[in-house]
Protein 1
Amino acid sequence: MLMQRYAWIAGLFILLVNKAGFSAPVSVELFGLVTGVDDRAGVLEGAIGVNDEIFGIYTYDSQTLDSEPSNSIGSYIYDSGPFGINLEIGGLEFASDSINLDFLIEVRNDYYQKDGFLLISSNNRPLSNGTEVSQIMWQLAGDDSSIFASDSLIAPVPLSDWESNDFRIMCGRTSIRGIITEAYIVPEPASVVMILSGSLLIGLRRERKQTEKDDRIGV
């Protein structure tokens, strides 16, 4: 039943995407691990701990114009459309607010002789318990300027090229820190469907985990 519901959602959004005619959406699937949690306020309710898996996807339009005139910094801003980031950690969902989108990707090429990549989602949906998610951020820094050929919008793969890899989520004073260990570009047209349906991948992943759990206990 759950699979049928997600399939129906996917089909609906494929239709919407085709009608909207989005030009060149690209999605990148992310996998990582939590390296630290500071939740003295208890808003995460113990759901997330060190070494928990990070799983998700972000989507951008490869034809978005650079809003930064510098030849060393490419700034790509999204305030509407099927773009943003959607993640699952410890059974909690962290996602850009598609209704009030504030999503930035910044590409740095030969900026003070170094390359860099920055992704920030500043307007996000609250957690299921109402906790506000103030920021989702992923930043990469290289030790030289050999990674990117320009400041054009591009996915930062392979990750082995980068010297530092910093992933963070802020929920007020609560912080989740991590590292993204794998990133893969998702073939079209699946990418737009994934980000538009929001919980499609996460829901399927949860269902698969529950099925495996039920099989282990003989349900």
Protein 2
Amino acid sequence: MKTSCVATASRRAAAVDMATDVAAELAQLERQTIFELRQEWRRLHQVAPPMRLSRDLLIRGILFKLQERALGGLSKSILRKLSQTGIEPATGKQSPAPSIALKPGTRLVREWRGVTHTVLIHADGVEWRGQRYSSLSVVARQITGARWSGPRFFGLKVRQPPADKDTYADA
């Protein structure tokens, strides 16, 4: 029981020291020029900061990185959840969707305006209504009369919501 109290007390002391260090670091960063802040960003992040990042966001990004180094990064469970969303934790960018590989003989079924359409996948293209086509997009265009992504039309790709522009604003 005493060991856990000592460990809790030492964690609290470390948190207080970290808060003091962060406050001191913040005061130092606020005195720096934008050029110096950009250099500090490069040093910590190992990449140039975005061109139009405001002074305030530069400071926030630098402080975040300093806290991350002092207290540790994201937990394994958070990293796992991020990887499931398709967002790369290191860059914050959306990873590309895995390519779709359909085996020959696969049948895709789609209902469009009350008519059921069945497409058979071949090694060198697709077959719809007994006719061969080079891609699903060509078939989707034939069915709808509009330019569609074939994989999306047949439900193989889900439309990704647009990336939130304020992703780093709360950092």
Protein 3
Amino acid sequence: MLHQYIIDLSLRMASGTEKRKINNILDDFDKAHTSPSNRFLQWIYIPLLTFGLLGLVWSIPFPHLEFLGRYNGFVNWASFLIAFAIYYYYKVSPLLSYGILLIVFAFSAGIVGLEKAHINNNWPMMGTVCLLIFTLGLILQFAGSGSETKPTGFSPQMKTLLDSPLWLMSLIFRKAGVKVR
């Protein structure tokens, strides 16, 4: 499902045939999410899902690679997820990609903070905390999508996993008076 969507998307982007523009993405998202309660919950669950997913991928063990030298530990699987996501966002909307990049920096700092809290203060492991955050985000997402007049299935929701941060960032930019369309 999601992995096939990502593969198809990356193939279209690599071949230069990705025609989906920011207006189409935002319009599709607006049409699929009309319930006021779901729109309110999106301000909560989109960041929770994004932070939780980033932390979960971050917690996957990454091999020690000699050629990285002193940079071992700075590169992990989340580095590749971040690179792919920012590339996708940049291709769709450079302006929104900059805003999302700032959020990713903040989320990364939060994840590193969770790692340090585990080591220094005996907190739960970062992966466990991120799994709980991700699960809470999923629960809120399903609660919000249940309030939609035309509920979407799980598969289309998985396809919007990449688009939902774009939509939320576009709302933030609009509230700040920045035109994104």
